[in-house]
Structures are given as C-alpha cells and as structure tokens.
Design a protein that fits this description.
heterodimer, A: alpha/beta, B: mainly alpha, 14 helices
Chain lengths: 445, 312
C-alpha cells in the first residue's frame, strides 16, 4: 500500500484532468426529428454505413446482428443487454431525460409501448417503409405497434397463451388434462389430494398472468382514447378471473412460489408444479431451465372460460422501436427491417423464438416442427391456433409498467391475506386511476 | 468502528508490572485468562454459524451441475462432482466475458478504492495535524457526508455525468468511488492518535519538507489505519452494485456484481438460458479475492482496530 502511493497521485491527477476536460464537451441533447425519412433514405443510410446501438435482451438477436454485419460490412451494431423489461425501461427513461446515451434501437414489450409513444419518445416508422408491412405480421402484434397515429415499432415476437403441462404427473395420478378453468380447479384439487406435494400451478401474484386471464375471459378493464382512460375491473371477464383464482387460492391449490425464481425451476424439474400458463415463447426456457422435464412436458390449448370455446389471449410479446433521440434513424430502421421483416426472422425462429411474422407463422415447415422436448409433439400447431384466436380490442394503459409494479401490493394481497380477489382488483383499479390522474390523464372507472 | 475499540481489559489495569501487583486477584485473571462463559460461547457459536452457513452453501453448491442444483438438498453434496467443470464453464461462457468483468472490477478497485484511500489518508492527516481556518466547517461537512448513503447520490451523479458525457465509461464508476467520507473521518481520528506532533516538529527541525515528512515519517506510522481504510473502500467498491447499474450499460465495462446479475436474469428472460450453476461458481470466484485480501491484511487490520485503546 505505502509503496504504491506515488502512482496514485498520478492517477488522481489524471482523473481531474479528464474531469475538467470533459465538462466542456457535453452531449448534443436529444431533439426529436420524427419520421420524414423515405425508404430511399434508409437504403442510402445502409449504403453509407455507420454505427448503431441496440438495447435488447432477446438472445436470438446475437446471431441476427452477426449476419447483418456480415452482409453489410460497413455497418457496426453494438448489441447491449441493458436489462430486462422494467430495468431497461427505467434506463431508457433516464437516458431520454438526461439527453445522452439513448440507443438507436430499443426492445420494448407491447404493454409498455404506449407509455413511450405518448410522450413522443419514439420515431414514427410509417414513412420509412413500415406502411408496406401491413399483412406481414399477425393482426394482434400489428395492432399493438399502432399507437394512435403512426407505427411506433415493428413486432418481434408475441405470446399467444398455451397450457404447458407435465404429462407424467397427470398419468401417474390418472387425471385428465383440463380443457376449461373449472376443470382446472378440479384437476388441481384431485392432484393435491393424490399427492400433497404436487400443485397444479404456482402463482404468488403476477400481473402479466392475471391480465392475460382477464383478456382471455373477455374482460376489457382498460380503454384508452387519447388522454381519456378508463380502468374498470368489475366487468364479467375480470369477475370470472377473480372467482376462479379465489377458489384456487382458498383451497391452496397453487404453490406459493413466484414464477422465474430458483424454487420455481426446482418445482418444474421435480414434478411438484404440474402446469404452466405461458406464452408461446416458453419452450427455450423449459429446455434450458427444466432439463429433467424433457419428454414429460406437453402443450395444450389454454383452458377455456366457456365449455367448447376457443378464446385466446396474449402474454408477453415485444417489438423493436427507434427512440426519437436517435441520430441515426435511417440506419436503425434498416436493421429493424432486416431483423423483423427480412432474413433475421428465420434466424430467430431457428434459435427457438416464436415470431410475429405471418410468412413464418403460416409456413408448413414451421407448423410441422417436432419438439423433441415435448416428446415429438408439433407444438407450433397449437401456438398458431392460439394466435389465430386471440380476442380483439385489448388495450394497455399508457402507464402499464407502473400499474404492473403496484399489482403485488394490491391484487397480490389476495394470495397472502384475507383480502379477496375482488377487493384486490378494486384496490388496483383505485390506485391505477389515482396515478393516472397525477400523470395528467383523464381517468375514470 | 472507532479507534477506541473496547477490549476486555478492565478499567484501571495498567501494563506496568507494579500496577499488576496491586490489582485484586480476579481482575488479573480476567486480564490474562478470561473466564469461560457458556452462554457467551454458545452465542458466539451461533453468530459464527450464521456467518459461515452461506459460505459453506456456496462452496457445496459450486460443485453441483445445474440439474443437481435444482433437485438436491442445498447443504450437502449431490450428483456428479462438477466443481472444475463449473469453474471452467464460468471462465469460458459467453466468450470468457467473466474474466473481463473480473479485470474491470480489479480496475475499479485499484483506481477507485486505491484513490479513495490515498485521498482519505492525505485529508485525514491534514485535518488532524494542521490548523487552518474552516477546519470546523470541514468537520461538519464530513460528518454530514457520512450520514448520506451513496445510493441516494447515485441518480444525481448520473444526471451530472451524463451532461459531461461520462456515463457508460469506467470513469463513471471510478470517480464517485474516490470519495469516502467515512474513510476520511477514520483516518482523521487515527492520525490524531497515531502521529505524535513532537515527531513532526522533530522532522521539520531536521529540515524535512512537508511532503517528505508525510511520506517518510507519517505514512509508516499510519500503516494500520491505511490498511483498515483500504479494506473498507475495497469491499465497498468490489461489492458496489447500484452505481454501476445506473452508470454502465455496456456489458464490456460491467463489474462482477452486474455481470453475475445479468447471468442470473437469464433464467427469467424469454428465450434466455438458465445458468444457475455458473452464477454460483461465479459468485464463489468473486469472493475469493476479498477473502484473500482479508487474510493477508489481517495483522494490520487488527492492530488498526485496537490502536488508541491503550495509553502507551
């Protein structure tokens, strides 16, 4: 320590010099110059080359970036994992507020798109060529990237829901795989009676899951017209969800384990959690995180709220968007086009992603894919059917990320206390309305 | 953790033999041979267990494959002995990014914690041994700064640094790490005790300049305090999470804390690969340097803790 004191003086001096030198060269801020560019401008930008930064946590993009750089050697793409969902949104919000460090392309889930679009933080892609992509994507994700006027991102993947279940556990106890939610409750009861260590599902309160269930049941708690917003969790769909989950929680049929935790993976591996309701993007996670379940798990259509119906909803799904503060929008769009409408789509599908592009969704090859993990099952057929049956007209709040963050303090109470789901939803509604009002929206119930 | 650390020496005992003779018998016993107390021993044992169990858990689980991790009892070995595979995979996964994170962390610690220690030593010495106007004000500011958690300053610092264009560079982590109010305060108190003013006067009379006095006379005397402060700042920088989290977005500049967290997050990322075994092996590798530093610097550290508790 003592002998190294001298170099430290130099180090400290250097730091001060840098500090003084850099105070003078602030960033140029983030003025927005929305849209306006044409497909020709995009092609010109691609020919000219340059460097763009992409914030995304989607692992399949690594290969896409490599291929893109190989095809266009004069373009450099810095792919940065700036965190998953809310972590990244916070970082993006910080960068936008600070006016520096904003990426050229950013990965945003559908539920969070509107909060960035509404503050004009995203570029309208219509004139750059996105207008010609009508029909290139499944209807739901295509609707999701349209925020009021304009197209604020291109769909990357989406999550039609399905029921993933452990066939071996059901066979062992001679229980039928449920096709309605009422059967699901009964199957849960039968499983738990047959083996007290086995639960039909695991849930400690999960906003994406609950909103998906309400969506599938036909509930429409949110409506958004410009800045006029309604939040109403008293409709039939929301009530159906509340009643069913109330039964599951009252009878202790759900394992009190939070999704994605280590304990959750453990339960999936040892067969104590028998089913999952997740989006069609789940298989790669099962393969890497639940190796013991290989060959045991299968996919089925999500249980129905009405006997014989085929209603579906979405859970998760995301887009790539271009922040208004990017100063390389044309090149950024060229990358978007390649990754989400060009060769990149197939690359991502080969790596296990579930695409939003109809060219793939409708292709024989895709539908005929046999999943070794699911014992050779053609799972994509079930996913594609679910995708076709997603109920229309669902909207997210323009501040959904915040609403989701308070879910566990409100509805989450129903899992751990005497609060009922109906009361929990009412509390969630009240707090969402209050926050929306503070943010300058005209919110009613 | 002040320098007047309590010892078991009863008040009034003295180191001179004459003093000892005058002591009542029991006090002499406690000074040399403390009585054994069963409840205290049990309590210490419990605390020791509490501190060691996580470490033991980490070592045990670093030997398991991902499958055994998820289907075996946590506090005992199970399945194949995969320790060396795990370490190997940790170092090679993602093109060996772990090594890069390790080197980043070392860089942040050497420059950040090293610089913080050096500044604290210089500042502490100046405040302890020089009289200048505004000294009391400095004291008030330092004490105030100790009370402000670093996390509270992270966001304002981010906004300031982004104006300077320093975010997403190593400087964004190193520069804030250079400031350690607690270290300054500790060095100040320590210097007051450990450096006799007479010695400084003697050095000046002998014609040594201020810098020479500082490096040749003062620094050796301060060694225990310097080690104490450098351990503090080193641990703080090594484990720093929030500051790099908001400052750095480029994985190439991540410290280990952020890197391991991003690996852990893969399990909850759509299409991500769960790598629990690498997170655990990586965590084990992450604490090895800290453990080594503590073991190597223990001697100084202990004398530093007890300094000033006895009037020589």
């Amino acid at each position: 320590m003592m002998t190294t004191a001298r170099p430290f003086i130099r180090g400290a001096g250097l730091a001060c010099v840098l500090l003084l030198g850099l105070t003078a060269c602030g960033s140029s801020g983030g003025g927005a110059s929305d849209g306006g560019a044409s497909p020709d401008d995009v092609r010109a930008a691609l020919a000219e080359g340059g460097e763009i930064t992409v914030w995304a946590w989607e692992p399949t993009l690594e290969q896409v970036v490599e291929d893109f750089e190989a095809e266009y050697p004069n373009v450099k793409v810095n792919l940065v994992n700036a965190g998953v969902n809310t972590t990244e949104y916070t970082a993006l919000q910080n960068a936008i507020s600070a006016g520096s460090g904003v990426p050229d392309v950013v990965h945003i889930e559908y539920y969070a798109l509107s909060q960035f679009a509404i503050s004009d933080s995203l570029t309208d892609l219509t004139s750059m060529g996105a207008a010609d992509l009508e029909g290139a994507y499944a209807p739901r994700p295509w609707a999701a990237v349209h925020q009021g006027e304009g197209i604020h991102g291109l769909p990357m993947d989406f999550g039609p829901i399905a029921l993933y279940y452990n066939q071996d556990v059901f066979d062992e106890h001679g229980i039928e795989v449920p096709t309605t939610w009422q059967e699901y409750v009964e199957a849960g009861r039968a499983l738990h009676e047959a083996d007290p260590d086995v639960y039909i599902g695991a849930d400690t309160g999960d906003a994406p899951l609950s909103t998906s269930m309400i969506w599938q049941a036909g509930g429409r708690p949110y409506t958004v017209e410009g800045t006029e917003v309604t939040v109403d969790f008293t409709d039939a769909g929301s009530t159906a969800f509340a009643e069913t989950w109330q039964q599951l929680v009252d009878d202790d049929l759900l394992a009190p384990i939070t999704a994605w935790s280590d304990e959750w993976y453990q339960g999936l591996n040892d067969g104590s959690i028998a089913t999952l309701v997740m989006g069609a993007w789940m298989p790669p996670n099962l393969e890497s995180g639940v190796p013991d379940g290989a060959g045991s798990w299968r996919v089925a259509p999500a249980p129905q709220w009405e006997e014989g119906a085929n209603a579906s909803a979405e859970m998760g799904g995301s887009s790539l968007a271009i922040p208004s503060a990017s100063d390389n929008k044309e090149l950024a769009y060229a990358f978007l086009d390649y990754a989400l409408a060009g060769d990149g789509v197939q690359t991502r599908v080969d790596a296990g992603a579930f695409p939003a592009a109809t060219a793939i969704l409708d292709s024989e090859e895709f539908l005929a894919t046999e999943f070794a993990y699911f014992g050779g099952q053609r799972a994509n057929e079930i996913f594609a059917e679910s995708a076709a049956n997603i109920r229309e007209d669902w909207s997210w709040l323009p501040y959904q990320a915040y609403a989701n963050s308070i879910f566990n303090d409100t509805v989450g109470q129903a899992y751990v206390s005497h609060t009922t789901f109906a009361e929990g939803l009412a509390a969630w509604q009240a707090e969402s309305i209050e926050y929306g009002g503070q943010q300058g929206f005209d919110v009613r119930d | 953790m002040s320098t007047s650390a309590t010892t078991t020496r009863p008040v009034g005992t003295h180191r001179s033999p004459a003093g000892r003779l005058r002591q009542p018998r029991r006090a002499a016993d406690t000074a040399r041979q403390p009585r054994r107390s069963v409840p205290l021993t049990l309590l210490t044992g419990l605390v020791l267990l509490y501190a060691l169990v996580p470490l033991v858990w980490l070592v045990i689980n670093a030997t398991k494959t991902q499958e055994s991790l998820l289907n075996s009892f946590g506090l005992w070995f199970s399945g194949d002995f995969a320790f060396f595979d795990n370490i190997g995979d940790t170092l090679t996964y993602d093109d060996g990014i772990f090594t890069r994170w390790l080197l980043n962390t070392v860089l942040y610690v050497v420059l950040g914690a090293g610089g913080a220690t050096f500044l604290a030593v210089m500042g502490g010495y100046a405040l302890a041994k020089f009289d200048f106007p505004g000294r009391r004000a400095v004291f008030a500011v330092v004490i105030g700064a100790v009370a402000v958690p670093g996390t509270a300053l992270a966001v304002p610092t981010f906004l300031m640094f982004s104006k300077m264009g320093l975010t997403n560079t190593p400087w964004a982590v190193i520069i804030p790490s250079l400031i350690s109010p607690f270290g300054l305060y500790l060095m100040w108190v320590f210097t007051t005790e450990a450096v006799p003013t007479e010695l400084l006067e003697a050095a000046r009379i002998d014609g040594a300049g201020e810098l020479r006095t500082f490096f040749r006379v003062v620094l050796p005397l301060l060694a225990p305090g310097i080690v104490t402060v450098s351990l503090f700042t080193m641990v703080a920088t090594w484990n720093n999470y929030f500051l790099p989290l908001i400052m750095i977005k480029d994985p190439d500049w991540y410290p280990l804390t952020l890197g391991l967290n991003s690996w852990n997050a893969q399990a909850s990322t759509v299409g991500g690969e769960a790598v629990f075994n690498l997170v655990i092996a990586g965590s084990l590798l992450t604490i090895v340097p800290l453990v080594a530093a503590f073991l190597l610097l223990q001697r100084y550290w202990q004398s530093g803790l007890a300094a000033g508790s006895v009037k020589e």
